[in-house]
Amino acid sequence: MPFNIALHISSKEKLYKFISLAIGVLAYVFIISLYLLILNFTPATEEGLKIKNAVNGFTFLVFVYIGLAIIIAMISVRIIKAKMFGNYVLVNEQQFPHIYEIVKDSSKRLGLKTVPEVFIYNSQGIMNAFAMRLTGSKKYICLTSAIIDADNDKQIRFVIGHELGHHVAGHLNTWFRILAFPNLFIPFLPFALSRAREITCDRIGHYVADDIHDSASALQMLACGSAKLNHLMNHEAFHQQEKMVSPLWRFYHELFSTHPRLTLRVAELKKWAQRNPN
């Protein structure tokens, strides 16, 4: 069956995305309307002129800061690229071709027109992977040395599929970030959206891995981190840990977290896999 992104996006992500966009659009409409209201309906008195000048001065400063932010972002992008190409290892046909084949095959399965550039870097034992977009449509994925060492190739396929999911699902879209910028001032909403996106990408990773055992064990390895214990992991026992903490404290723990608990992610993915066999 061809990949359909709409079937994999979590209901919570759809909800939080809608709320984020609604808040963003309303905030921008309110600000622009207020600006036009002040300019057009402020009386032409001395006090009114002072108000208009103050508003125009503030608007000028806003555009100055936006310009500075763009310049800083452009410089930062080039510094980050210099760091990546100078200190990370670029995966391609000549460098770790077996990993590149996983990326290439996974990208094809997900319908990506171009294969993202993938880097591996020395993480000093920290297990992580992340997706990036620096400029334009160029896509990147970074994998830590620790996750490569601990996971087997099937688990790495899930991890790569998960990170590709961020690109496929539009999580790194610049226009969405700009439109939804005001939601950063809404308590807990950015964190809730981020957690929902991780659930979406777990589903996409599972679609790529095509095996619930490999998908669940890849998530559990983020908690375990031991290559020696990898094949000995008991997924059901790990899943049961979710019930060992009260709902209140589970909720409190996640309020300011960008990622759901790993026990919850395994549980959610297993339920998803049962309802939606690839």
List strands and helices in order, with pairings.
Blueprint: H1 5-8, H2 11-41, H3 46-87, E1 89-91, H4 97-109, E2 117-121, E3 129-133, E4 139-144, H5 145-150, H6 153-168, H7 174-179, H8 189-209, H9 212-224, H10 235-240, H11 247-254, H12 262-275
Parallel strand pairs: 2-4
Antiparallel strand pairs: 1-2, 3-4
Q: Could you state the order of secondary-structure elements as H and E?
A: HHHEHEEEHHHHHHHH
> What is the strand tally?
4
- The percent range for helix content is 55-70%
User: How many separate helices?
Assistant: 12
* Spatial order of strands in the largest sheet: 1-2-4-3
Q: Radius of gyration in whole Å, from Cα?
A: 23 Å
Report the uncertain regions. none
Task: Specify the overall morphology.
Answer: globular
Provide mean pLDDT, rounded: 91
Strand content of the residues, in percent?
A: 5-15%
Query: Main sheet, how many strands, which sense, barrel?
Result: 4 strands, mixed
Account of the protein in words:
The chain has 278 residues and is α+β, with helices and mostly antiparallel strands. It has a domain at 5-41 and 146-275. 65% of the residues lie in helices and 7% in strands. It contains 12 helices and 4 strands. It has a 4-stranded mixed beta sheet, with helices on both faces. Helix 2 runs antiparallel to helix 8 (189-209). It starts with a helix and ends with a helix. The mean pLDDT is 91.
